[in-house]
Write a structure and sequence with these properties.
By secondary structure, the protein is of the alpha+beta class. It contains 2 helices and 14 strands, in the order ααββββββββββββββ. It has one domain. Strand 12 and strand 13 (231-237) form a beta hairpin. 24% of the residues are buried.
Length: 257
Amino acid sequence: MKRSCSVRMGSQLGISLVELMISMVIGLVVVGLVTGYYLSSRQTYGNVNASSGVNDHGRFAISMIEQQLWLAGYADDWQARTLIFPSRVAAGGMPGFAAGEVVKATAQGELWIRYRAASLEEQPLRDCSGQALDDPDVVVIAHIDTVNNTLQCTLHYSDAAGGTTSDGAVTLIAGVDALRWAFLDGSNSYKRYADGVDWPSVRAVRVDLVLSSMEPAFATSQAQVIRIDEQELTYNDDRMRRHISRVVALRNLLGGL
């Protein structure tokens, strides 16, 4: 007796249209989530990078400005300041100084400082370009200002014979949107250069800096308003900004003339 063996082939069903649409929707959701995460991470990275850059520039700029202001009126000579820093007439793009004057401004965003190198050994002073000063017979005149949104320092040297030489401008940082100076003089109030500052009695300087990031920090333009004294500075772009204000006492002048 023979047994017959039959094999039944099961039919294989395809993916239905509904399943296909569900798979596509799930795929689109996943792609959307990944894209959103990428864009969010990229924006966060841009903000962190911009903030870090602005903060680093701010610390460097304030450190350099403080150093130069602390040097204002410095000389290791015990003569009267009017003898150490004699008067000079305006010439060569530099302002005139009365005898004993060591700080001055002739425009809103600029500052002029006078000091001398140390004559004592192993006590070198460094100018705003980082170079050591070694000639105490020369009066250093440092000029700090902004050109094309960069903070710059230019050094001039006045010798005993009245001759003056100058170095080229040194660019310190970029991204400077505003630079303002105010001077605390004998009136015990801060004044701008145009407010009739009594320069010989200046004992402190306030500096206001507005710095912007070098790279975009926002996906779209953002309106920003920064107030310095009674003035409002308005910006509308994709850059991050920071306002830094610092008061620096002129250490070498606190004891009087």
